[in-house]
Amino acid sequence: MKIEQIYTGCLAHAAYYIESNGEAAIVDPLREVGPYIKRAKLDDAKIKYIFETHFHADFVSGHLDLKEKTGAQIVLGPTAKPSYEAIVAEDNQVFEIGAYKVKVIHTPGHTMESTTYLLIDENDKEHGIVTGDTLFIGDVGRPDLAQKIVANLTQEKLAGLLFDSLRHKIMPLSDDLIIYPNHGAGSACGKNMSKETTDTLGHQKKVNYALRADMTKEEFIEELLEGLKEPPGYFPQNVMMNIQGYESFDKVMSKSQKPLTAKVFEAAANETGAIVIDVRHQSEFIKGHVPRSIFIGIDGDFAPWVGALIVNVTQPLLFIVSQGREKEVIIRLSRVGFDNVIGYLEGGFSAWKQVGMEYDTLNSISAEEFANRYPQNKDLVFDVRKEGEYLAEHIGDAKHTPLDYINNHLTEFPKNKLFYVHCASGYRSVIAASILKSRGIHNVINISGGYDAIKNTNVPRTDFVCPTTLK
Predict the structure, then answer these.
(1) CATH number assigned to the domain comprising residue 213
(2) Which of 74, 225, 70 is nearest to 156 (CA)?
(3) DSSP letter at 291?
(4) Taking the CA atoms of the chain, what radius of gyration do you get in angstroms?
(5) Which of 67, 94, 132, 355 is deepest in the core (most CB within 10 A)?
(6) Are residues 219 and 165 in the same domain?
(7) Which positions fall inside the Rhodanese domain (predicted)?
């Protein structure tokens, strides 16, 4: 069967291209739809359907633009209530793509409309299942997102529905079916996803904690909800964009590609209240940056961090980028719904300096220098990594202030003496330091190279020890 996974690593997102006899379908497309259209043209195929597994929270789908450009029909799962024309499928409804069939399997739990698509080849053999966020490799979808949209839903109720969907709809299927999920490791839509992006259903039944044959519904709910963190704040806004519609990608690109001179850039920031994002490498930001700008590097998990830290997708944005990457920044912002980009600094940061504009720097030291200072500064170290990283191993006296929730920890940082921040490699700590500086906390020192470099020094560390039970 001809099915191709189109994976976008920075979002840990998988879309799918299916083609047979000149007809094609796209499942869960990203915002920029050009690559899907080009892929279909290579096969001289017409895109017939756009299948959505659910209303996504972590990105804005390209379903509306793809429909507009190709005439394809949007297919959504049962109970979906979009604000635009679409086929709201019935459970077990079958769609044809050339000689292939796609069968709708309603699998509520991650969201109420969540749907798995069973792929059947030209010989009527069941080939695989596109599971969306219902079933991942190594995990299942988090059940707390839809409660942000529908008032009478709880995560416990959704988790119970997901248990039923998995037990009664997915697990009875053939073990040799290939699982095609919507996300891989790194996505905030689950908590234990594998780096692998496909697997067989039979293997997942053996290794996926959520598919244990002897698991009760109560055990499933408890294990699924255990350790589940608050989802990023932009998630509900992306859901509503996917339900209600949005401005076309082409219009967003057209209005956002505005080069601004340094003086105009400064005026725009002051007049609009725009947040200035510096997307260059952290080493460049450290050496010099526009005052009060926030660093979120384009070469890291850029879009998810923008969503998690800025949250409001309507917030006006300005950005600073190395020449030639302006379009890339706008595309990646639009993927998570940040369409209100009002321009970028023409000529980059060097142009800012050339006209004599004021700039700031970030105090940053090596891991070796930090090791020398550590004995006198044990209570002034802040670890901004994720909880799992911190629990696995950390500097003995470091305080845990995860970057995801740094705005909830602002009062914990000293105001009148120097303190240190670190992450794993130096990317997230510079983000954290830039946010602190933008809030007027300038007595922050970044540890270059992060924990990876600190491990090679004599700074004492605390390893997580799993408790044992004596019998």
Answers:
(1) 3.60.15.10
(2) 225
(3) T
(4) 24
(5) 132
(6) yes
(7) 270-361, 375-463
**In 3D, which of 437, 150, 101 has the Cα closest to residue 295?**
437
Is residue 471 in some structural domain?
no
Q: From CA 136, how far away is CA 76, in angstroms rounded?
A: 20
Do residues 232 and 251 share a domain? no
- Tens of pLDDT along the chain (471 residues) come to 999 999 999 899 999 999 999 999 999 999 999 999 999 999 999 999 999 999 999 999 999 999 999 999 999 999 999 999 999 999 999 999 999 999 999 999 999 999 999 999 999 999 999 999 999 999 999 998 877 677 678 999 999 999 999 999 999 999 999 999 999 988 888 777 888 999 999 999 999 999 999 999 999 999 999 988 888 889 999 999 999 999 999 999 999 999 999 999 999 999 999 999 999 999 999 999 999 999 999 998 999 999 999 989 999 999 999 999 999 999 999 999 999 999 999 999 999 999 999 999 999 999 999 999 999 999 999 999 998 899 999 998 999 999 999 988 899 999 999 999 999 999 999 999 999 999 999 999 999 999 999 999 999 988 754 433 332
Q: Are 420 and 445 in contact (CB under 8 A)?
A: yes
DSSP state of 140: B
Last residue of a domain, one of 354, 382, 401: 354
- Considering the domain architecture, whether residues 213 and 253 belong to the same structural domain is answered as no
Tokens representing 439 are 């809030």
- Tokens for 14, please give them: 């998988």
